[in-house]
Amino acid sequence: MTGQEFVRDTQYIGTRITRDGRDGFPVEAGRYRLVVARACPWANRTIIVRRLLGLEDALSMGMCGPTHDSDSWTFDLDPGGLDPVLQIPRLKDAYEKRYPGYPKGITVPAIVDIPTGAVVTNDYPQITVDLEREWTEHHRPGAPELYPEHLADEIDDVNRGVYTEVNNGVYRCGFAGSQDAYEKAYDRLFTKLDELSDRLADRRYLVGDTITEADVRLFTTLARFDAVYHGHFKCNRTKLSEMPVLWAYARDLFQTPGFGDTIDFTQIKRHYYEVHRDINPTGVVPVGPDLRNWLTAHHREDLGGRPFGDGTPPGPPKPGEVVAPENGVPLNG
């Protein structure tokens, strides 16, 4: 890592899949494939939202492995190293199909047009919003309203601060190019985490009394905090498990169907510790932390709230989309 402060490139492929197809890509069940990696927090958001809304039958999902080289995410979890639907070994192939010589990073999540094999979008903040707003015809009965119109402005406001200070803030700490840049990033991160603790002290969820897009976006960073960001990215003022309000909030969500059952701690740790050799030159992956505390009582239900509003929890994950038991939280000692 060279330079001083880590600055994320946020110029993504902004094509949208919409009900009216105004960008040339109408919502259509079975036409698109969501490509993700369980290790990636940005992709993890789409996995959660797709599952909560019950879009599994309308939008198939391809899974990249936890590690990648400087060139591309790869489908090394699949037989023969090929995505079974797209029949490509590297996600880069779908980017190149749309934009030959694509000059930017190959990122997940991405949605690929199956008939052409070309990527449609990798604009991850917009992808989940469009799944919530544009794909409603394909939502399951009882799907929760994750981005309700009357709360949209407040959700957007909360999301802006969570993104700059927390979601991206941990990376700003980890990839800081100087001591000064690191300390500024560290202060910003924990100032925001303290603010979020205060906000959540007397309310179960970030906005309103149900789970929304805002909770999904914060959760994927919190789920990785103790396993990766505390040590690997030097976000070490306190562990998540030492911040009582945020720790209870995170456990509440983790124990909610659609959240914790998408978290693969083994893949998460492998990704960060093996790929970021500039930070961890040996590639050694730590054995800890002990994950069993994720299943302890949180008592957040005492604050009220209705996780799914007038909706219902999603059913179990689809076969083939279940996190391997050895990669999740141990259910016993």
From TrEMBL:
Residues 145-272 form the GST C-terminal domain. Coiled coil: none annotated. Residues 302-333 are annotated as: Disordered. PANTHER family: GLUTATHIONE S-TRANSFERASE OMEGA-LIKE 1-RELATED (PTHR32419:SF6), GLUTATHIONYL-HYDROQUINONE REDUCTASE (PTHR32419). This is Glutathione S-transferase C-terminal domain-containing protein.
